[in-house]
């Protein structure tokens, strides 16, 4: 995974509003994805505008079958739409993007779906594919 780009995010961007212990013991935080794409776009924008990277503030979109956005301040990533996994954030080709976490419980009870089935549905059968 190309998560190094996101290591400059402040805790207010990468921490979830869950018990801090989950970050400390399980690494539960926003990591972000598509980092190599954002690095390339930021560098190319810097060259095109003839400005140093550390002077740029950008909001960049990575749009494809996977989709995300990143906020870049003074050349460093300060926020992202993706999370612990690529599932969080924008609607994608087959990924749902952000969804109410209680949908999991509803589907378990109403349809008898397992966590694995729900995970597969949200990652492989949702997003634009699911809307069609």
How do you describe this structure in short?
With 132 residues, this protein is α+β, with helices and mostly antiparallel strands. The protein is built from 6 helices and 3 strands. The chain has helices at 11-14, 20-26, 35-49, 102-111, 115-124, 127-131; strands spanning 57-63, 67-73, 76-80.
Which features would summarize this protein structure in a list?
single chain, 132 residues, alpha+beta, three-stranded antiparallel sheet, 6 helices, 3 strands, 39% helix, 14% strand, flat
What does this protein structure show overall?
This protein has 132 residues and is of the alpha+beta class. Helix content is 39%, strand content 14%. The chain has 6 helices and 3 strands; from the N terminus they run H-H-H-E-E-E-H-H-H. Strands 1-2-3 form a 3-stranded antiparallel β-sheet, covered by helices on one side. The two termini are 29 Å apart. The model has no long low-confidence stretch (mean pLDDT 96).
């Amino acid at each position: 995974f190309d998560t190094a780009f996101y290591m400059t995010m402040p805790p207010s961007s990468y921490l979830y509003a869950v018990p801090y212990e989950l970050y400390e013991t399980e690494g539960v935080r926003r990591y972000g994805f598509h980092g190599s794409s954002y690095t390339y776009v930021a560098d190319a924008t810097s060259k095109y505008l003839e400005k140093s990277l550390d002077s740029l503030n950008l909001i960049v979109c990575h749009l494809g079958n996977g989709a995300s956005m990143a906020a870049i301040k003074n050349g460093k990533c300060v926020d992202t739409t993706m999370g612990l996994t690529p599932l969080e954030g924008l609607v994608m080709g087959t990924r749902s993007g952000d969804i109410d976490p209680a949908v999991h419980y509803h589907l378990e009870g109403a349809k008898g779906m397992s966590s694995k089935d729900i995970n597969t549905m949200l990652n492989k059968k949702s997003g634009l594919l699911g809307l069609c």
